[in-house]
Amino acid sequence: MLDDFMLRATLAGIGVALAAAPLGCFVVWRRMAYFGDATAHAAILGVALSLALSVSVFAGALAVALIMALAVNALTGRGFAMDTLLGVLAHSALAFGLVAVSFLEGIRIDLMAYLFGDILAVSRLDLAVIWSGALAVVALIAWRWSALLTATLNTDLAFANGIDPRREQLVLTLALAITVAVAIKVVGVLLIAALLIIPAAAARPLARTPEAMAVIAALIGAGAAVLGLRAAYLFDTPAGPSIVCVAALAFLTTSLLGVGARRA
Hints:
This protein is mainly alpha-helical.
C-alpha cells in the first residue's frame, strides 16, 4: 500500500501536522514565533553537517536544532532583547548552513528540497521517522500538558504549584527540535514555522479551551496537508508551499468567522 508516493506524502503531512498542532498552540500562547524560526533555520546547518559526516539527516537536523534552541534559552536575559538575539542567531545559522553546503564535494544536494520541502519524495524510512518523531512530541506534550499550561499562563502560579518554568521551557525546546527535524522533509526549513503557527492561530477563534484549540489545530493542519497536496497535484504547484497556502486560507476563514461572531 505504501508504494503509492501520494499516500506516503499524505501520511507524512498528517504526521507533521499532529506534532506541530499542540506545540504550535504553545508557540502562539507564548509568542515564540521567532523562536521557532530560529530553530528551523539552524536545521540547514545540521543538514550540511550530516551530509559531510555521512550520518542521518534527521539526526543532524535534530542535534543542531536542539543546540540552537538551548543556546537561545541560555542567552535569554543576558543583555540582548529577545527579538534581536533570535534575529542574529536565525539568520546566522541559515547563512552558515548554506555556506557549509557549498563546500560539500562529491555530494549532490537539492537545496530547494531542504528549504521548501520535498514531501513527494518521502520514503518508507522517512515516513517511519516522521511518525516516530510526531508520536514522541505528542506523548511529551500530553505528559507535561498541565505543567506547560500553568507555566505559560502565570510563572508565579507555576512556582506556587512546584513547577519550574525553565524546565517546562526545556520540554518545549526539545519538542520543537524534534518537530523541526521531522518536518524538514515535508515543508522545508523556511516554512516549518508557518506550519507551527498558522493552524494554531486558525484554531484560536473556534476554541473555548486550550485542549480544544490543540485538537482543532491538529485537524486544520491535517486538512491543510491533504488539501494542499491535492491542489499541488491538480495545479502543478510546489507541495510544501501549497500546504501552507491552504492553512493560510483556513486562518483567514476562521478569523472572519470570529469577527462575525463578535459583531453578532
